[in-house]
């Protein structure tokens, strides 16, 4: 796809929600790099959604209005991983243009209910009126499963009204479960597969964080529909390293 061309059909948060509920995947990219230009380049790749990472990325809340606007203009849906799961940090991106939030460190079903409330105006929730630009009337709400406590309460969490899907963070989950060693890779993979299966059985969309298309495809083959195909920093480093190797005649540095 020519990244200078706008897609003919724009994706919306309503269409994402419908796709996931029908068991059809969306394919998105994850952004740790700041800036409107970065966001536009990522969105014009043909991605269905772009996730701006405020928790671990270099972007800030001040970047969000411009970033969200160019992502939408390019035909993708701007989502944000919030800085934390606190009430203010969940709601703030929604006031600044995000059409949904992926919320880290959700402890259990009760905590997920608090997250949903932070995304909904009264009487459905406790979100304060103050949206400045863009955004959505019914933003997507996606708690992360990345702690042992969330896994222990997974069935109840999957049943929380207003949760549009769950997103699994393998790195933090492996630490929480004591499965972070290389020798525990297969054990962790079995846990991830189990989470996908349980979410699919409950009719709840699920995604697992991935850094490349091969890993993303493997999760999708098991039923994941919130598909992250690449992370900008990882892909940029990989591509530049390959170009350097090619220019040096295949010589390793």
TrEMBL record:
State whether keyword Ubl conjugation applies: no
SUPFAM superfamilies given in the database record: Phosphoenolpyruvate/pyruvate domain
Asked if Metal-binding is a keyword of the record, the answer is yes
One Pfam assignment: HpcH_HpaI
Chain segments annotated as coiled-coil in the UniProt record: none
Q: Which UniProt keywords apply?
A: Lyase, Metal-binding
Residue stretches making up the HpcH/HpaI aldolase/citrate lyase domain:
30-236
- Name the protein family: Belongs to the HpcH/HpaI aldolase family.
Protein name per its UniProtKB record: HpcH/HpaI aldolase/citrate lyase domain-containing protein
Query: What is the organism field in this record?
Result: Nocardioides flavus
């Amino acid at each position: 796809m020519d990244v200078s061309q706008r897609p003919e059909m724009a994706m919306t948060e309503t269409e994402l929600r419908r796709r996931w509920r029908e068991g059809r995947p969306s394919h998105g990219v994850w952004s740790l790099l700041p800036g409107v230009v970065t966001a536009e380049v990522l969105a014009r790749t043909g991605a269905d959604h772009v996730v701006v990472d405020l928790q671990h990325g270099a972007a800030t809340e001040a970047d969000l209005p411009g970033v969200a606007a160019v992502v939408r203009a390019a035909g993708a849906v701007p989502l944000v991983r919030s800085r934390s799961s606190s009430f203010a940090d969940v709601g703030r991106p929604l006031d600044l243009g995000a059409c949904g939030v992926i919320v880290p460190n959700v402890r259990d079903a009760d905590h997920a209910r608090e997250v949903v409330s932070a995304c909904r105006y009264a009487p459905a929730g406790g979100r304060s009126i103050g949206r400045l630009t863009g955004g959505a009337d019914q933003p997507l709400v996606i708690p992360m499963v990345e702690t042992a406590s969330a896994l222990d309460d997974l069935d109840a969490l999957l049943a929380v009204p207003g949760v549009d899907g769950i997103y699994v963070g393998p790195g933090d989950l492996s630490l929480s479960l004591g499965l972070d060693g290389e020798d525990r890779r297969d054990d962790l993979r079995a846990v991830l597969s189990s989470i996908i299966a349980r979410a699919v059985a409950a009719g709840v969309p699920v995604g697992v964080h991935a850094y490349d298309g091969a890993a993303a495809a493997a999760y999708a083959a098991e039923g994941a529909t919130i598909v992250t195909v690449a992370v900008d920093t990882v892909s940029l480093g990989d591509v530049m390293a390959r170009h350097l190797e090619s220019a040096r005649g295949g010589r390793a540095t």
